Amino acid sequence: xxxxxxxxxxxxxRRSLRHIARSLDTILTTAVMPIGFMLLFVYVLGGAINxxxxxxxxxxxPGILIVTVASGISYTAYRLFxxxxxxxxERFQSMPVARSSVLWAHVLTSxxxxxxxxxxVVLVALVMGFRSSAGPAAWLAVAGLLLLFTLALTWLAVIxxxxxRSIDGAVAFSYPLIFLPFISSAFVPTATMPTPVxxxxxxxxxxxxxxxxxxxxxxxxxxxxxxxxxxxxAGILVVAYAFAIVAFRRKIS
Length: 253
Known about the structure:
It is a multi-pass membrane protein. The protein is built from twelve helices and no strands.
């Protein structure tokens, strides 16, 4: 049973990845938009922002990586919604295909696509002057945290992909996620914000995740920040997975 599930998931994941490779607009949106943000903030707005660091791109990159993931997972909801509308799920149910493999294929596709976008953003940041004192272990920790964050948001994206009544509704959920980093420590220190905004910014998950990534990149002490970031990612993942599975079972029942 397990080998059957894994084989079906691998086949369906390759199918989804081929669709992405043929969709230039998906690639442009998930990779180029965050890179555009990074260019805008560093070369246009960066001179007016006091981040307290010698290089603004070093300060900015963790937040841009969060924006990259937030914009990329909207396509999970989009592709899932289209599969439902096109009757793909019904066709697969009439075939000897593990039901859950259809869902996991979309999740794995999101992990692969977002990983490629993240690598592209980091490479551009290096060209722009980003430098890190992180060793191999710290880079692995960065990759692990971003992977966990991507997985959590991907399962969150599955819910509107399964329950939305229109394509606009399926992708609109990602807009607040893209906007959330702007009310965090991603672009400016929270100390510069008005008190009500600062209180919100300091206690929302993006700030904890961004600060943990920034500390890993710069070799600073992590303290309890990393555990807080991991707790937020794990909590979102567990809740989103539970709701997504319930929505999936209702949809295929």
